[in-house]
Design brief:
By secondary structure, the chain is of the alpha/beta class. The chain contains six helices and five strands, in the order αββαβαβαβαα.
């Protein structure tokens, strides 16, 4: 039997998912981009404490949402340095394939608007409120 993080990673690698959260038995998957699946799970009140997550891209915004969701471990194919700092600060185990200074937007013309929105935020609850407002603007 695979560990929760290995189960999540396997599902991410073998399917067209952008994000997978698993406890080894139950898995939540998404093909949505950005922080949309994480916001959805958080706002739906999903109890994901002690789950592990595998994600294609983890920026600081996603890192704060993983903190709020209560996951214990995160694997990212690409992670930003600020996201790594958040996960370490909240004592979430993190592994990754590639670390970058910051997440770029989809057109590669600047930084991800969600990462930029929380760049100076140091609290997960405050980050959620900022992200909620930012998504309402878009």
């Amino acid at each position: 039997m695979l560990s929760p993080i290995e189960h999540a990673k396997q599902l991410l690698m073998d399917n067209p998912f952008t994000c997978v959260i698993s406890n080894g038995e139950t898995a939540y998957t998404s093909t949505q981009r950005g922080i949309a699946p994480l916001m959805g799970w958080y706002e739906d009140g999903q109890d994901l404490h002690n789950f592990s997550a595998a994600d294609k891209v983890v920026g600081k915004a996603a890192a704060y949402l993983y903190v709020l969701l209560g996951v214990t471990e995160v694997f990212a194919q690409v992670i930003s340095r600020p996201a790594l700092e958040v996960l370490h600060r909240y004592e979430i185990i993190v592994t990754y394939d590639e670390q970058v200074p910051a997440i770029r937007n989809r057109t590669n013309s600047g930084f991800c608007p969600m990462e930029s929105a929380v760049m100076d935020i140091a609290d997960a609850g405050e980050a959620y409120m900022v992200l909620k407002r930012k998504l309402d603007e878009i």
